[in-house]
Design a protein that fits this description.
CATH superfamily: LCP protein
Number of helices: 12
Radius of gyration: 19 Å
Helix content: 25-40%
Strand content: 15-25%
Shape: globular
CATH class: Alpha Beta
Largest sheet: 7 strands, mixed
Strand order of the largest sheet: 1-12-7-2-3-4-13
Number of domains: 1
Distance between the termini: 47 Å
Order of helices and strands: HHHEEEEEEHEHEEEEHHHHEHEEEHH
Length: 368
């Protein structure tokens, strides 16, 4: 199938309809913007959070007296895949940049070929807002089923209408996703990071596992092979890469579906960050090397992002400086035969205006 044919056929790249993309029938409305720092992760492609981990770990290296390892770091960075994220984004339609804060669009994908959308969906969408003073960051999860306006793709085959936000990735790859997120939020995207979840297991294993407090017992139902289904007991536990991957994928086991998965993603980000910043990891060259290399293998970034320079910028940022929020919603519903998430437009306009202005106090107030 040609690239044009792939983009023209959403069934080849993207689940646009049905309950599978939304909350299960009868699910409760999870509400609007919430602070979800105590929640768990989801599917392989949900490991986007790892991108910020890379930035923080590089920052820790830079701020921890290891500047002599600059050649090593640059050799790692030189091997990270680069993507053309903004090449097809019309400048005249982009929001104005009004502060020196940095906004990174983090996308989770099925495929290691970031230039192709064949067979892949952007199931995780996070807008990471790094405050201008570099003292805090807010990670904003946008539910993948959020009903938004998707601009027309370059081929003119899709878009130019309302659809689920992750349709943008299937129809036009990273550039159309950037354009769609900017259209929806009014926030200018400065950089893009794409994470492939095939490397998620190795990243967690490189850290020696992560500590997760499971909010409720459940059995993961996503596997096509019933013998591979994994049961999780409630309470704190250490998960290896395989368990964390299963835990991060699940949504069907929960009444609030994808919102539970988002909470879990946010929980796992924090667990990875805390483990990566721990003395045991930083004091072990072998562990740190394994973690950085595994992470680098799973990440692609836009051509303008220097992880080393940005990591130096963030050298004082720690897990407690991160706030995890969810884009304001009015809950779920249906458009035709599609299960969708409706944005709370008034709350979202106010919330994203605060993000655009780098009004951190207002952002945090909205997250309470």
């Amino acid at each position: 199938m040609s690239r044009r044919e792939q983009l023209a056929d959403p069934t080849a790249t993207h689940e646009l309809g049905g309950v599978a993309d939304g909350v299960r029938p009868g699910a409760q409305d999870p509400g609007s913007v919430v602070d979800s720092a105590a929640a768990p992760p989801r599917r392989r492609r949900r490991g986007l959070r790892i991108v910020l981990t890379v930035l923080v770990v590089l920052a820790l290296l830079g701020g921890g007296g290891l500047l002599a390892g600059g050649f090593y770091l640059r050799s790692i960075e030189s091997g990270i895949e680069r993507v053309e994220a903004f090449v097809d984004v019309p400048e005249e339609f982009r929001p104005e940049k009004v502060t020196t804060a940095t906004n990174i669009l983090i996308l989770g994908s099925d495929t290691r070929d970031p230039q192709s959308t064949s067979g892949s969906r952007s199931d995780t969408i996070i807008l990471a807002h790094i405050a201008a003073d570099r003292q805090s960051a807010q990670l904003i999860s946008i539910p993948r089923d959020t009903w938004v306006f998707v601009p027309e793709n370059q081929e003119g085959t899709h878009g130019g209408r309302e659809a689920k936000i992750n349709a943008a990735y299937a129809w036009g790859g990273i550039p159309l996703m950037v354009q769609t997120v900017e259209e929806f939020t009014g926030v200018r995207v400065d950089n893009v990071a794409l994470v492939d979840f095939a490397g998620f297991r190795e990243i967690v294993d490189a850290l020696g596992g992560v500590e997760i407090d499971v909010e409720e017992a459940f059995t993961s139902n996503h596997s096509l092979n019933p013998d591979n289904r994994r049961s999780f007991a409630a309470g704190p536990q250490t998960m290896d890469g395989a368990a964390a991957l299963d835990y991060a994928r699940e949504r069907y086991a929960f009444a609030d579906g994808d919102f539970a998965r988002i909470r879990h993603q946010q929980q796992v980000i924090k667990a990875i960050l805390e483990k990566a910043a721990s003395g045991g990891v930083l004091s072990s060259p072998a562990t740190l090397n394994s973690f950085i290399r595994a992470t680098a293998d799973a990440v692609a970034v836009d051509e303008t992002l220097s992880l080393i320079d940005f990591g130096m910028d963030l050298r004082h940022l720690r897990g407690d400086d991160l706030t995890f929020v969810t884009s304001p919603t009015e809950g779920t519903g249906r458009v035709g035969d599609e299960s969708v998430v409706f944005a709370d437009t008034d709350a979202a306009d106010s919330f994203y205006d605060a993000v655009r202005r780098d009004a951190v106090d207002e952002i945090l107030a909205a997250a309470q």
